Amino acid sequence: MTWLGDNWRTVLDLAVSHLYLAGVPLVIGLVLALPLGWAAKRWAGAYPAIITGTGLLYTIPSLALFVMMPLLLGTKILDPVNVLVAMTIYTVALLVRTVADGLRAVPDHVEQAATAMGYRGLRRLFGVELPLAVPVIAAGLRVAAVSNVSIVSVASVVGVSQLGDLLVDGYNRVIWGELLTGILACVLLALLLDLVIQAGTRALTPWVRAQGGRP
Amino acid sequence: MKRTTSAIALVAASILGLTACGSGSDPLTAETTAAATGGGEPIVVGGANFSESTLLAEIYAGALRAKGVDASTKLNIGSREIYLRALEDNSVQVFPEYTGALALYYDKTFTGTDADEVFAHVQKVLPDTLTVLDKSAAEDNDSIVVTAETASSKNLKTIEDLKAVAGDLALAAPPEFKERPQGIPGLESTYGVVFGSFRPLTGQGIVQALKNGQVGAANIFSTDPAIAANGLVALEDTKRLFGSQNIVPLVRADRADEVKDALNAVSAKLTTESIAEMLKQTDIDKADPKTVAEEFLTTNGLG
Amino acid sequence: MIPSLISWLTDPASWSGEDGIPARLLEHLGYTLLTVVLASLVAIPLGLWVGHTGRARWLVSLTNSVRAVPTLGLLFAVSLLLGPRISGELAFLVPSIVVLVILAVPPILAGTYAGIEAVSPAVRDAARGVGMTGWQVVRSVEIPNGMPLLLSGIRSAVLQVVATATIAALVGLGGLGRYLIDGIALGDYPRAAGGALLVAVLAVVLDGVLALVQRRVVSPGLTAGTRPGRGGGRGSGGGRGGLDGAGQDVSAAGKDSSDQMVEGERFAGETRAPI
After folding, report:
1. Is residue A210 part of a domain?
2. Residues of B with CB below 8 A from C191's CB?
3. For chain A, which chains pass the contact test of at least 3 CB pairs under 8 Å?
4. What is the DSSP letter of B72?
5. Per-residue burial over B93-113, b = 16 or more CB atoms within 10 Å of its CB, e = otherwise
6. Residues C42-100: pLDDT tens digits?
7. What domains does chain B contain, in order, with CATH numbers?
8. Is C100 a member of any domain?
């Protein structure tokens, strides 16, 4: 892998950009998805509407969103914000359902017990329902993370720099070292995000460990 | 509850933290080089999505830096339709361009082929926000390329010779070739050449398709080393459909004075042969365009 | 922007010829069908085997990690590898289909495996108890019970393929992606937007069709006693895969809620989002 040896600095720079473009939307997307997912769970009538609506956002091809953003946001054509916003939209679309499902999976009797103990409204949501929903939400977040890393690489087609540049240049000049490094770097980045989320999940669900069960 | 909040904060912080350590140095904008000694705003030189453009962008940026301008590159922007927008919204200020293509882009009815005529016309039709500096003698034209076997078996030397056989051949080209005046429409109106089918591909895909026999002809740039490296034959453009394509810096009018000395000096030294040779180094020998550009500048006293 | 998009959509020229909307739609549909059939041929038997015998579970984890590979990179690499080895028009089709199949196998495999695995041991025991052989158990018990999750996996795969096939236009594939890629290259944004819209519409329609199929094919015995809304005992994490959430209100027989949560978590983790 002499190519990597000669170019690791570039790869590192691109990897950091990639992490930024894939990772920040995860955080923002989760924050935005929480109230939407909660609304979908709280009002059963709203569930199909919200879920289908966000699901539709998901079917828009990524390249199209990247290209439309300047027109919608008034940003410059090469501005990475275009990618950030597009990725956040995808993350929200993916996570809204996960949050709703996670909250729905909290058993009735647990909710009722919590209410009986005096937990109501937001306190119950943050103190009981969300923590119990963490495994499902985290699973969705992991999917979103891996998916984001892959989608962001396509942004090289519209001139936004990240690991996808290695794929495009590696293909155009037929430099296998570069192409394979790009692929590998994306896989490793996805793995890194996956591990971080898993670690966070374990930290957030100490009761699972206490039970000796699976996280 | 407290542990939950702090754990959530930990995960979010680690994700943001991992990203922030890089974004501090703002990797999202073009890579900046060592501090320049001159004053003034930084200049971003853009490059399109093919290796010659990358090479020229690096040469321009290197020459500017040598003259004390804080220059950086923004590469792989995409086709002309995209990067002109980048010039217009001031994301980039300098772009390596081609006289003929520019003339046609802004004036679809233009038919001139003489180098000076084309250059003069470009200056006339450019919008006020943009201007071109001196043109170089170096040219890079579109060409229609076939394999050596096709050329000999179908007796092809010029594009005109394609008229009889094009109907049986597929043409590989970038998507924009289909509708550009110098592209498919031009082939038909100037030469009466109509290909059987059109296969839109990007970059390396075009050369591969021709090499592997999946298309009969391809639109490849005349300086592309793949032509020589694969024994391909570029058909002669006897009617000069692809006109004159002198390499010329396209710059924003409001920055032209800052860059014209450095870039005109480069244009004076660029030749078609030197570009072809440099492309051979980047594309066949897989050298780093930046290194090749630096070598060119040093050899020519510009770096 | 919207007016020019509408004029592109209503222009008769957009609907005729080999670059016309019907032609591209059909191409795209064809690629999707071909990919899902091929991927199912690989993934369903494999998933059945792993689910039934409980062996080689690592296969499922392995295929899931395939999702981390960037689609663009895979397309470029496979095109460069296979291009020289295939002649004619197929050279543009085969590499893309190969990549699409590779990416479609994980969700179908995950869905099949999850479906079979979710069948309660009690039910399996009962089947053996009445004298069914292994193969009969698979056919008459595990597959019908596993249908909801298997079909969710297929729905997920279809969504993914429809979206990913657009990127394959970069390496010469036809279909609706052509509008997107060519539109962007030409700066013809109405065309690109039109392409994106058509892809979204196709995805929604196909998902709706599969949802109907799911409703028909899944045995009523599995859907009895479930309804959308809050509460435990729902396989709400389990049937995930479609756009509308209808696929998820089916509980695998006999599981209690915390198990379903875990199972749902695992399945959600195994459903990759399309590109």
Report:
1. no
2. none
3. B, C
4. E
5. bbbbbbbbbbbbbbbeebebe
6. 999 999 888 888 788 888 888 878 888 999 999 999 999 998 888 777 888 999 999 99
7. 43-139+244-299 (3.40.190.10), 142-234 (3.40.190.120)
8. yes
